[in-house]
Structure formats: structure tokens, C-alpha cells
Amino acid sequence: MNKSSSESRSIFAWCLYDFANSSFTTLVVTFIYATYFTKAIAENEIIGTTLWSRGITITAIIVALLSPIMGALADRGGYRKFLLLLATILCVITTTALYFVMPGQTTLALTWFIVANLSFEMGCVFYNAFLPEITPQDRIGRVSAYGWAMGYGGGLLCMFIALFGFVNPEQPWFGFSKEAGQNIRATNLLVASWFALFSIPIFLFVKENTDRASVLNKQLFASSLIQLKTTFQEIQRYRQIIRLLIARLFYNDGLITIFAFGGIYAAGTFGFSVKEIIIFGIVLNVTAGLGAFAMGFIDDFLGGKKTIIISVFGLSMGCLIGVLAFSKTMFWVAGILVGFFAGPNQSASRSLLGRFIPQEKENEFYGFFAFSGKATAFLGPLLLGILTELFQSQRVGMSIILIFFIIGGMILMRVNEKEGIDLSRR
User: Fold this and answer.
1) pTM for the whole thing?
2) Angstrom distance (rounded) from CA 380 to CA 392
3) In whole angstroms, what is the distance from residue 194 CA to residue 2 CA?
């Protein structure tokens, strides 16, 4: 097999992992299970929204603490693929466990969700770190976008199956009933199966550089921590990376909060049914996939910084319309805007960092990337929960998202993309 076909196969296998894991964020974190938790498992929607925000907050704090350390371990020991496999398996198992949680069992539901979400997020650290290795620098923007686009496609297709196979029909597939929400809970089994099946290619066809492989022992952990300290000191030399990561602390917090509470907000404020939320999620996935794919080429043409700035502006407008919306139609407009610009925002952020990272530091710097996405990520859900509880209004709670987008965009304006690329010496 020639180099070109091998590279194409690796890229496709890498993108397919996005296709696989997006089922979890789409059905569990954002639309179906999050809504089911607030409406059926928790005592009421206000309490459910508050508790769900606590679950997202706990996950964010743990990921922020662990991601740089695990990134250093993967870099030092050559365990990127192994740790990705471990995170994937754990997410699949705990997502399966969500099926068995009954209405009223809020603690058990949150426990399984936190472990599953934590596993998903840690897997993304190792998955993202493959990006600079599988594609040339001049194509990194579009390859990152291909991944996001396939991810939204995977979430969309899985949502279709959930809607027409489990949620909508009078007799759900495989003999599931509608008693105690069994058909809704069964969507977790769909997600677990989907994730497990479509994640297989990355482990078969994406190669890992094992030149630095080491035996997993105490010395490896100690040396990894030392290397992490060195990298933390070195990162101060890469000031454009610092600026990008600080900006992402804020605008990504806004995205995380939207993903975690979009379905909850639609149900509680606009009276969306589970079926309507799924249709809403399908439309958002279509627009997000189109946005990610289209702006991937813009990313390589205009640069990552400009692409992110455009996306942050679009997200801000969508958020503002969503908060002020007085009808379902206005909320649909807001959702489509958010959907279209969410994909490019995430894709361009990932690719811009890939352009800034020095070689052989991918896992560690993407560990810091995950850290930047989670270090303050508890603030959005936490403040949303507090404001919702204080004012007894989800609308007031959702307004905090706009502030995060504005702050992140202002900091991003100070990133010098050319200097960041030059310092990476790629």
C-alpha cells in the first residue's frame, strides 16, 4: 500500500471515531437523556436542571485536573492508543448502565453519567493528539473539519434511529415498552453499541509512534509528572498557545453549557416534547455538520483565528436570540445559528492548536487543550444552575452563556497566528 492510500485510510479511521463518539454527546449529554433526567428521573425540571448542572460541573473539574497529567503519561510512555481504548471501553460500559436507572434514582443516574462523561472527555484528549501526526500542516484545518462533520453526521444518524426505532413508534424496537420510560432508557444501549462498533477502525488503522514506549510503572508516572512540569514551564515560551487556551477557557465554556442544557431549555421554557427535541437535535446536527465541513476550507484559507472569531460572533448572535426568543420559531432560528457555528468553532480551535504545537508534545499540549476546555467549564453550568434556581427561570440562567462568548472573543483577538506557527517549528 502506498503512502497516500495509507494516509487516507488513517484519516478516515480517525474521523470515524468522531462519528462514533458523537452519539454520546448528542443523545446522552445534550438531547435525550439530559431531558429525560430532568423530566422523569428528577423530582421536577428545576431540581433536575440544577442537579444536571452539578454533574457537568464535577466532570469538568476532574477533567481539568487529570487531562494534562494523562497527556504527559501518554507522551512519555507511548500509551496514547491504549489509554484511548481504555476510555472508550469505560464510556461504553457506563452508558450501558444508564439504561438500568429508574425514575427517582437521581444519585445513581448522576454517578453513571459522570463516569461516562469523564471517560468520553479523557478519550478526546488522546484522540485529538493524533491530528497533527496523520495529516500535513497545510491540510490540518480541513481534516479537523472532516472529523467534526462526520461526528455530527454520526450523531444525526444515531438520533434518527433513536427517534424512529425507540421514541416515536407505539411499539418500540426489540420488544421494549414505554412503561417507566424503558424505550427512552434503551437509547443508551443504542449509544453504547454505536460507540463500540464505529470506534474499532481507529485502533486498527491509525498508527502510533511507539519509539518512546516505556513500561507502565512508578518511574514512568514520576517521569511523566516531571515532564509535565517542564512542559508547563516551556508553555510560557509559546505565548500564542497561552492566549488561545485562555480565550478557549471562556468561549468553550459557553459551548459546553449550550450542549448540556440546550435540550433542557427547549423542554422547560418552550414546552418541547421528547420527540420535538429529537427533531430539533437532528436539524442542529445537519447544520453543524454543514458548517464544520464548509468552514474547514475557510480555516485553511483564512487561518484558524479568523475562523474562530467568525464562529464566536455567530454563536453570540444565536445565543442572544435564544435568550430573548418569545416563540418556538425564534428559538429554532437561534438553534440553527448555534448549530452552524458550533462545528467550525470546535474544529478550528483544534486545528489552530495543532499548528502551534511543537513535535513530540502532542498529547501534553492537547492535555492542556482539554484543561482549557474544562478548567472553568464548571462555571457555566454552575452559574446557570444558580441563576435558574435563584430566579426560578431557565431563560435567566441561559443568559450567562452570552457573557462567556463575548469574553472569549475579546481575548482571541490578541492571538498572533503567524508567530504561533513559527514557534512550533513544524
Assistant:
1) 0.73
2) 17
3) 31
